[in-house]
Amino acid sequence: MSHGEPRGNQSCVPTEIKRLITLDGAAFEYAIALGLEPIATVPSNFQSQLPALMTNARNIQNIGKGEQPNLEAILGANPDLIVGLDSHQSIYPQLSQIGLTVLFPFEHSGQWKEVFASVGNALHQQTATQSALAAYQARSTDFRTQMGDCLDNLQVSVIRLYPDGINLYLKDSFAGTVLQDAGLARPPSQNISAAEAQQKFGNPIQTRISREVLEQADGDVIFLWTGENTSQGNEEAKKRLQQLQQDPSGVNSGR
């Protein structure tokens, strides 16, 4: 799937970025992966679960909550560059008055490599981008080599438990692309492309299922994660998982 051009004057991005602000969790993670140190960001719910991000975030100013940046805080931080995803298009006029702002098109999480490369190119970090992607690809190749013929008869399911439902993560989600690169097959119910999923479900990367079709969540290996990365949300998801495990028609809890 192709992307449009990032919004903002990339030709004016300084080769030496001293005061970088990232507007969302994805932009922050990209910056860290490129060896850049943002002075401020809107932290994501996942940062608390990733030690590498927490280490880098200790001295970084919090400029918002729930990926909703605070314009006054951004102004006070005096950035020389503001970077984020195009979900912030509505406040681009205000952001561009504060400092040079570049927003990157992002339709769904499965496009992470393409967007990462776009960010790296715009920020003059092509070498770091290529190095990071090459390291990722090397790990994927090593995994495939170690697994060998075991990959032929293995289907991996990815499900997400929300307090109010169960979602399947599909072929072109972030998790799905990682599994593809690792050579791991998906159950038929999840082996659905972004274009097909968008047409069928109105969402390119995930779809909700009912208890009546719980077998669609099954697999030889099951990766399960919770929808809310908070203590309360996780507890609710655990309760829901326990209910599913008690259902004899549900997901086999031993896998």
Please explain how this structure is put together:
The protein has 255 residues and is α/β, with parallel strands linked by helices. It folds into 2 domains: 10-135, Rossmann fold (3-Layer(aba) Sandwich); 154-246, Nitrogenase molybdenum iron protein domain (Rossmann fold, 3-Layer(aba) Sandwich), CATH 3.40.50. Helices cover 37% and strands 16% of the residues. The protein is built from 9 helices and 11 strands. Strands 3-2-1-6-7 form a 5-stranded parallel beta sheet, with helices on both faces. Strands 10-9-8-11 form a 4-stranded mixed beta sheet. It has a two-stranded antiparallel ribbon with strand order 4-5. Helix 2 (51-57) links the parallel strand 2 (40-41) and strand 3. Helix 5 (112-122) packs antiparallel against helix 6. It is globular. The mean pLDDT is 87.
- The percent range for strand residues is 15-25%
Top CATH class of the largest domain: Alpha Beta
* CATH architecture label name of the largest domain: 3-Layer(aba) Sandwich
Shape: globular
What is the gyration radius calculated from CA atoms?
20 Å
CATH superfamily of the largest domain: Nitrogenase molybdenum iron protein domain
Structural class category: alpha/beta
In whole angstroms, the N-to-C terminal distance is 34 Å
Number of helices: 9
Biggest pleated-sheet summary: 5 strands, parallel
Number of domains: 2
- One letter per element, helices H and strands E, the order comes to EHEHEEEHEHEHHEEHHEEH
Strand order of the largest sheet: 3-2-1-6-7
The count of strands amounts to: 11
CATH topology of the largest domain, which one?
Rossmann fold
Indicate the mean pLDDT: 87
Give the helix level as a range of percent: 25-40%
Unreliable segments of 5+ consecutive residues: none
